[in-house]
Automatic annotation (TrEMBL):
Record SUPFAM superfamilies: ACT-like, HD-domain/PDEase-like, Nucleotidyltransferase, TGS-like
Biased amino acid composition, Polar residues: 1-13
Annotated ACT domain residues: 678-753
NCBIfam families, sorted: spoT_relA (TIGR00691)
Pfam families: ACT_4 (PF13291), HD_4 (PF13328), RelA_SpoT (PF04607), TGS (PF02824)
PROSITE patterns: ACT (PS51671), TGS (PS51880)
Protein name, per record: GTP pyrophosphokinase
Family: Belongs to the relA/spoT family.
Species, as recorded: Ideonella oryzae
Gene3D superfamilies: 3.10.20.30, 3.30.70.260, Beta Polymerase, domain 2, Hypothetical protein af1432
Length: 753
């Protein structure tokens, strides 16, 4: 007597009733007729491959020709036409040809030749990825990249279907021959191929891959469930057959034509439901199940209504996937009822079109994955990349499978699905790396590690030295040569040079140059502060304490502002020099200027005081109609700042009692005086730049009274940084002039200081 595991071999349905035939036995399905030309191509391919494959043994131990036959039969079972079946024979025959692409192209045409080359290359890459020595975390990342690679690597979607069928045939062979399947093969089938079949909507292949990989990876659990199913197998099959006949007769008698099948049960799905819902085997509702196929959607609901009238429905076990399809496009009505003996019976009701979709994946949706969070069978969105894959591939797959079924005699290569914005390459350790299409070795280095990208100086691709601007192709192995210390080149940021394709890598290079520029600015500011401390005889003062007293969290924050010339050293001088003893005579609030004129120096009036000495602060250079504020200094009257001046804000925070309200006088408001303002300009250094900018100011009748310029090398190349001091009567007019300066060739940034 056979064991339960043998009886329930995954090479055949677990519940097999005569009413639902096994479609795996013939290379061509009778319900999808093909042209004589297509069938002739299939026969020629079989005749071409047989002498090459006869007696050959594959790496797995399979007979090569038998494997090709099995793959062709599986493709036929999911609707693949003769041309796709013919490709199965040619792909394996190519392993034993000297120049396979040329030979196949000459005998069968360029479409088959391309398919052979792509499939063989993909097999090699998968083998390398499978054999890579990686840790658990890296292995998980590797698996996800292999999943994506199966979709993005090949130009021809037939490659993906061939790989699915090939892996299923290999697992079938291990099961039939009762040999131990290599763990890596079974793991890849479970983690890569079964989810891919699910994304394609090809449930036949999905469930069988899951059952077989479950059998090889968790043999004890597989045998336990198989034994539970086998213990009452004969009784269960008899009861399912009786229920099938009873339900079909009842629907027919009530005017609802329907075909009722006994639905095969899959060990892995039963085990997964037990795990996900924490149920014992006895509580799994759909061990006994029927599938009802009717003519149209109204008939689906009519059949459901009649089933609920005839049998008692189980509460909370009804799902309407017609009104609300599953994310992958699956549609059916699901319900669980109790038969006349009180035993649960799952019933699925669908149209023939829905059945075709569920079995053969005609309208597959690929943007969902199996590791979802909605219970044992939930799905969740797989991310932006796979959503784009779904939109790009969904319609193509539908056309491909329909075209393969109803072969019209056109070239097979005319139906292709391309998704060309990714490439997949390997490290020397065979770890798979996903890159933007057109990526270079420098992009590859940055994808591995930012520091490796900075230190990259050379690269080998498939063992040969190549320029760093070389675009990488799918399946290549890339090795980076790096120096111990160093940084990126400015040339890498030049798009025309072609060193970088990835925006992420480009951002890392910019960040490196920004950090270096910031370090130079901090060093310049530190030097200026230390020189000031030397002049003041305060070298013993800790820089961190000084920064804290000035309101900065870190000393580097102070140095950076000083280095950018955005924080005046006079603020530090005022802090370091002890104030003189106050007296009534030198109280600046009571001191008057010699003149009794209503307008003080600079055309500024101090609110509430007739004529107080005022000075326009050089750090921000206010001009009418700027919002201004006053700060009472020691012995120099009131310093007038723009209210948005950083120095003014710092001083006001530290000594708010010295802030005083000021306003522009009548002369300033009338435009009778001129005020100096600073304009900072950053531009690409070039000949005649200073002349072109000066001409703009001259044209607008603004007198330039000072210019300071320096040239530095940064991420953009040679950059000129200029400060123009110009005189204006009305600062509101300045913005219009700055817009014109910004239009001068090479100017990147212009702003009032």
């Amino acid at each position: 007597m056979k064991s339960s595991a043998e009886t329930l071999s995954s090479t055949a349905p677990i519940v097999s009733l005569a009413s639902e035939p096994d479609e795996r036995v013939a290379p061509q399905r009778a319900d999808h007729p093909a042209t004589e030309e297509a069938l002739a191509a299939l026969n020629r391919a079989m005749a071409f491959a047989e002498p090459l494959l006869a007696g050959r043994v594959m790496d797995s131990g399979e007979d090569a020709y038998a494997h090709a036959q099995g793959v062709a039969a599986i493709l036929a079972s999911i609707g693949g036409g003769p041309s796709l079946q013919a490709a199965a024979f040619l792909v394996y025959a190519a392993d034993f040809l000297q120049r396979p692409e040329d030979v196949v192209e000459k005998a069968f045409g360029p479409s088959y030749a391309s398919l052979v080359v792509l499939t063989r290359k993909l097999v090699q890459i998968q083998r390398a990825a499978r054999e890579a020595q990686l840790g658990d975390a890296q292995r998980a990342e590797q698996t996800e990249r292999v999943r994506k690679m199966l979709l993005a690597f090949s130009k021809d979607l037939r490659v993906v279907l061939l790989r699915l069928a090939s892996r299923l045939q290999t697992l079938r062979w291990f099961a039939a021959s009762k040999r131990d399947c290599p763990v890596a093969l079974a793991e890849e089938a479970k983690a890569v191929f079964a989810p891919l079949a699910n994304r394609l909507g090809i449930w036949q292949i999905k469930w069988e891959l899951e059952d077989l990989s479950f059998r090889f990876l968790q043999g004890d659990e597989y045998r336990r469930i198989a034994k539970l199913l086998a213990e009452k197998r004969v009784e269960r099959e008899a009861s399912v057959e009786a229920a099938r006949l009873q339900m079909g007769s009842d629907l027919q008698s009530h005017g609802i034509p329907a075909v009722v099948y006994g639905r095969p049960k899959h060990i892995y799905s039963i085990w997964k439901k037990m795990q996900g819902k924490h149920l014992p085997f006895e509580k799994v509702m759909d061990v006994r199940a029927l599938r009802v196929v009717v003519a149209d959607i109204p008939a689906c609901y009519a059949a459901l209504s009649r089933v609920h009238e005839r049998y008692r429905a189980v509460a909370a076990e009804y799902d309407d996937y017609i009104a609300k399809p599953k994310p992958n496009g699956y549609r059916s009505l699901h319900t669980v009822v109790l038969d006349d003996e009180g035993r649960p019976l799952e019933v699925q009701i669908r149209t023939q079109e829905m059945h075709e979709h569920a079995e053969y994946g005609v309208a597959a949706h690929w943007a969902y994955k199996e590791a979802g969070t909605k219970g044992y069978g939930g799905v969740s969105a797989a991310g932006e990349f796979e959503q784009r894959v779904a939109e790009a591939r969904k319609a193509v797959l539908r056309q491909l499978l329909a075209w393969e079924r109803d072969f019209s005699g056109q070239g097979a290569g005319q139906v292709q699905g391309r998704f060309d914005d990714r490439v997949y390459v390997f490290t020397p350790q065979a770890a798979l790396v996903e890159l933007t299409a057109g990526a270079t070795p420098v992009d590859f280095a940055y994808a591995l590690h930012t520091d490796l990208g900075h230190r990259c100086r050379g690269a080998k691709v498939d063992g040969a030295m190549v320029p760093l601007t070389t675009p990488l192709a799918n399946g290549q192995t890339v090795e980076i040569t790096a120096v111990k210390e160093g940084g990126p080149s400015l040339d890498w940021l030049n798009p025309e040079a072609g060193f970088l394709k990835s925006p992420r890598a480009r951002a890392k290079v910019r960040a490196w140059f920004n950090a270096r520029a910031q370090a130079d600015t901090i060093a310049r500011g530190r030097e200026a502060v230390e020189k000031l401390l030397q002049r003041e005889g305060k070298t013993a003062l800790k820089l961190s304490e000084l920064a804290s007293q000035l309101g900065f969290k870190e000393a580097d924050d102070l140095f950076e502002l000083v280095g950018k010339d955005e924080y005046s050293l006079r603020n530090i001088e005022q802090l370091l020099r002890p104030p003189p003893a106050p007296s009534e005579d030198d109280n600046p609030l009571l001191k008057r200027t010699a003149s009794d004129a209503p307008t003080a120096r600079g055309g500024v009036l101090v609110v509430g005081v007739d004529s107080l000495l005022t000075n326009l602060a050089r750090c921000c250079r206010p001009a009418p109609p700027d919002a201004i504020g006053g700060f009472v200094t020691r012995g120099k009257g009131v310093a007038v700042h723009r209210q948005d001046c950083s120095n003014f804000r710092h001083m006001a925070d530290r000594m708010p009692e010295r802030v005083i309200a000021v306003t522009w006088g009548a002369a300033a408001k009338a435009g009778e005086a001129a005020y100096p303002v600073d304009v900072q300009i950053e531009a690409a250094d070039r000949t005649a730049l200073l002349r072109d900018i000066s001409e703009v100011f001259a044209k607008e009748r603004m007198q330039v009274v000072g210019v300071h310029s320096q040239t530095v090398t940064d991420m953009h190349g040679r950059t000129a940084r200029m400060t123009f001091t110009i005189e204006v009567a009305d600062a509101s007019r300045l913005q219009q002039v700055l817009v014109q300066v910004g239009q001068v060739a090479g100017v990147r940034q212009v702003r009032r200081r």
